[in-house]
Every structure is written in C-alpha cells, then in structure tokens.
Amino acid sequence: MATTKTTSARKPAGSHPAHEAPWDHANPKGPDEHKHLSPQAKAAAKRRAKRAGRHYPNLVDNMAAAQGKA
Question: What is the sign of the dihedral through the CA atoms of 6, 19, 37 and 42?
C-alpha cells in the first residue's frame, strides 16, 4: 500500500516569499535580530488576544506588539 504525503495548507497562485506566513520563515540571524517583549508590549499582546477571543497571545499578537501595532 503506497502512502502519499499531503499538506493541508496551499500557497496561493502567484504567492511571493514576502507574503508567506511567519512560521514559514527562518528564525532571525544574529544577536540584534532577537528581541524580548517589554512588559508594556506583553500587555498589548494580551489585550489584542483578548479582543480576538483568545485566552493567550499567539505569534501574530506578539509580532504586532513587538512592532508597536497592538
């Protein structure tokens, strides 16, 4: 019996690497690329998650908070 490997997520036609999901990218390189969230940014991520009906912030909430968009 042959098994086939399928993925549930497809890339849209004509997708560009800059528009890929964050989890499809490699982690940042170098010591200056990785940053910890400040207490204010953590609170902003939690507020954003709560507004969206989630119990805790996800990657997108944390990324928005890190950029000051939360």
Answer: negative
pTM: 0.60
Structural domain of 43: 34-70
Q: Tens digit of pLDDT for each residue in 9-67?
A: 555 554 456 677 878 888 777 766 667 899 999 999 999 999 999 999 999 999 899 88
Q: CA-to-CA distance for 67 and 7, rounded, in angstroms? A: 31
Count of domains forming the chain: 1
Distances (CA, A) of 1 to 4, 8, 16, 33: 10, 22, 37, 47
Could you tell me if residue 70 is inside a domain? yes
